[in-house]
């Protein structure tokens, strides 16, 4: 069951996102408490947390405002986050569903990308994440399978179910199968005019622009074990890059 304090935080962040698009001010504590079915001390604690993060600015006797730049900085391209955590940071109720998975024999060009011999046994999983029930992201994950009794058997003959649950987060799944963690992701962003069926799955009109990521996961040993292609709904998540200037500053 979701913590009531977490529900309140998401509610305040949702209102902050709305306000940031108009340049207005947040409602007062009393109105926030009324709208979010909370009391003023609870709302005050959430606002204090958001103020520490720089997302809201509070001044005695003045309206509380939202800093849209600080709000965007909660989701940065250089940060590796589980998509559920990313959506949670933005104040959404995250969800994930496995649209399908299958065993495949991986061939060129992905075998070259992953530096694997062709054909290579792999599992293909299609997943979708939601934010407050709205489609947010789609992913097609291809995970190389190591040789061994736990990975070569395939789906159960009687039930058709696969002993490998590709609906799980890919990071603990990789560590379980390969016995070492993913320590690097090489993520290449792009833009795509999304076509069917992906447009419907993302809740976008065919031809609408969406952000894409092509990702390669690398183990501590340097071995490349998964490739992902992701499509992100720009109405849900916008990413920022924070660039530092070298000293001395002039």
UniProtKB/TrEMBL annotation:
GO molecular function per UniProt: DNA binding; DNA-binding transcription factor activity
InterPro entries: Bact_HTH_transcr_reg, Chorismate_lyase_/UTRA_dom_sf, Tscrpt_reg_HTH_GntR, UTRA, WH-like_DNA-bd_sf, WH_DNA-bd_sf
Keywords for the protein's UniProt record, in alphabetical order: DNA-binding, Transcription, Transcription regulation
Domain HTH gntR-type residues, every copy: 1-69
Any Pfam family: UTRA
SUPFAM superfamilies, sorted: Chorismate lyase-like, Winged helix' DNA-binding domain
GO biological process terms held by the UniProt record: negative regulation of DNA-templated transcription
Keyword Metal-binding assigned: no
Domain of life of the source: Bacteria
Chain coiled-coil ranges: none
Segment forming the signal sequence: none
Protein name per its UniProtKB record: DNA-binding transcriptional regulator, GntR family
Source species: Herbiconiux ginsengi
């Amino acid at each position: 069951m979701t913590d009531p304090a977490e529900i309140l935080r998401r509610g305040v962040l949702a209102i902050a996102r709305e306000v940031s698009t108009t340049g207005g001010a947040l409602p007062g504590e009393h109105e926030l408490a009324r709208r979010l079915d909370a009391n003023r001390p609870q709302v005050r604690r959430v606002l204090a947390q958001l103020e520490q993060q720089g997302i809201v600015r509070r001044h005695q006797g003045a309206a509380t405002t939202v800093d849209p730049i600080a709000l965007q900085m909660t989701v940065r391209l250089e940060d590796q986050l589980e998509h559920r955590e990313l959506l949670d940071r933005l104040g959404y109720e995250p969800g994930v569903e496995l649209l399908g998975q299958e065993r495949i024999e991986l061939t060129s060009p992905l075998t070259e990308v992953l530096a694997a011999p062709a054909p290579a046994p792999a599992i293909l999983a299609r997943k979708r994440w939601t934010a407050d029930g709205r489609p947010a992201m789609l992913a097609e994950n291809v995970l190389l399978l190591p040789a061994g009794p736990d990975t070569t058997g395939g789906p159960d003959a009687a039930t058709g179910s696969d002993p490998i649950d590709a609906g799980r987060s890919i990071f603990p799944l990789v560590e379980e199968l390969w016995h070492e963690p993913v320590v690097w992701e090489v993520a290449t962003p792009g833009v795509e005019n999304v076509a069917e069926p992906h447009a419907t799955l993302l809740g976008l009109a065919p031809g609408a622009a969406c952000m894409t990521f092509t990702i390669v996961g690398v183990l501590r040993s340097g071995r490349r074990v998964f490739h992902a292609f992701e499509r992100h709904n720009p109405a849900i998540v916008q990413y920022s890059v924070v660039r530092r200037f070298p000293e001395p500053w002039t």
